[in-house]
Amino acid sequence: MELKQLGEFGLIDLIKENTIVDPASVIVGIGDDAAALLPSPRQLQLLATDMLIESVHFDLTTTTPWQLGYKAIAVNLSDIAAMGGVPKHCVVSLALPRNVQVDFVRDLYQGMKEICRRFTVNIVGGDTVSSPQGLVLNVAVTGEVEPARLQRRSGAKPGDLVVVTGELGNSAAGLDLLRRGHWQEFVFARQLVTCHLTPQPQVQAGLLLAAFANSMNDISDGLASEANEIAAASQVAVRLFEQQIPLSAELTAASAVLGNAALDYALYGGEDYQLLFTIEPEKLRVLPANEITAQLTVIGEIVRGPAGVELVAADGAARGLAPKGYNHFG
Ligand SMILES: Nc1ncnc2c1ncn2[C@@H]1O[C@H](COP(=O)(O)OP(=O)(O)OP(=O)(O)O)[C@@H](O)[C@H]1O
Ligand SMILES: Cc1ncc(C[n+]2csc(CCOP(=O)(O)O)c2C)c(N)n1
Ligand SMILES: [Mg+2]
Ligand SMILES: [Mg+2]
Ligand SMILES: [Mg+2]
């Protein structure tokens, strides 16, 4: 069915179903001039937004609407996770080309609702407009964090260890496989493509680490870029050890096919949505042993010195690591 058969308001009715998964804090959801929300007492309110643009962030020939909806929410939850918070509510704005079908929008929302259900996030509003060219999808998300647990990029201290959750570079290699096409013939490809199309925000990890870390950031633009953000915000030197950067076996296999170094995907690829944080060694030692801490890798240390990042190779040689990564205007 064409969108014009349903109209803007018919479309909103279709969207409205199953958007509130935790009603206690929603006084007014979809359907009024604004949402009205009840904040939890003594919590800081977090607010973040990230936008996805067709041909810049996604290609509709290689992503399904469901996956696109899932990812649009995931990248936003990732920013709340990076602050050590719990995501609560989101609003979703859509600019839709006129030829978009109703089923497309329904599937897009199914993807969004699925990840919102998994993380107990309410969709409390949005905006729907037409776009003369290309689809635009913007999400804004609120979150909450106890003041003492708030994580910033600026809290890294000399002596801290630099640690990441999960593996790096999978998403960028997945994107290159999608661009190359015929990726289904490679057994290692599915996991990488999945990392790219439906990244998993590290909300549980962020909540656990919030009580222990000194600084935190999520990896949207690549390790080189995010490590430089922490260095600049904290005015410290970040020393990373090349050999310690967690690279998956799938990434290593893909990099041979794609003709690029696995390490470069991790350093400059981006869209991993893992967490990069710094923590005092004594605190890292007392973290509880669980599924989250099993996935942590120490990749470096914070040292005194001018703000910047250096990468130490296997032979001990150090080089400066520029904040090269995905740059919209670079
Ligand atoms: N157009 C804008 N107006 C006001 N603030 C902005 C604008 N764009 C970005 N910012 C702010 O700049 C800071 C850095 O934004 P940035 O988008 O780089 O962070 P991020 O979301 O962590 O990264 P990514 O977009 O790669 O996921 C944030 O505080 C963000 O709110
Ligand atoms: C079709 C297509 N082309 C290129 C990319 C790669 N890409 C786009 S934005 C971005 C950084 C994070 O975005 P932002 O900084 O806006 O949050 C990256 C790595 C993609 N995902 N899809
Ligand atoms: Mg952003
Ligand atoms: Mg971020
Ligand atoms: Mg972001």
List keywords for this structure.
330 residues, alpha+beta, 60s Ribosomal Protein L30, Chain: A, Phosphoribosyl-aminoimidazole Synthetase, Chain A, domain 2, seven-stranded mixed sheet, 13 strands, binds adenosine-5'-triphosphate, binds thiamin phosphate, binds magnesium ion
What does this structure look like?
With 330 residues, this protein is an alpha+beta fold. It has two domains: 3-147, PurM-like, N-terminal domain (60s Ribosomal Protein L30, Chain: A); 153-320, Phosphoribosyl-aminoimidazole Synthetase, Chain A, domain 2, CATH 3.90.650.10. The protein has helices at residues 3-16, 65-82, 102-118, 170-180, 189-197, 203-209, 223-234, 249-258, 262-269, 281-285, and strands at residues 26-28, 36-37, 44-53, 86-97, 122-131, 136-145, 161-165, 215-218, 237-241, 275-279, 296-303, 308-312, 318-320. Helix 1 (3-16) runs parallel beside helix 3, helix 2 (65-82) runs parallel beside helix 3 and helix 4 packs across helix 9. The radius of gyration is 20 Å and the shape is globular. Bound molecules: adenosine-5'-triphosphate, thiamin phosphate (TPS) and magnesium ion (3 copies). Thiamin phosphate binds at residues 50, 55-59, 175, 220-221, 270-271, 326.
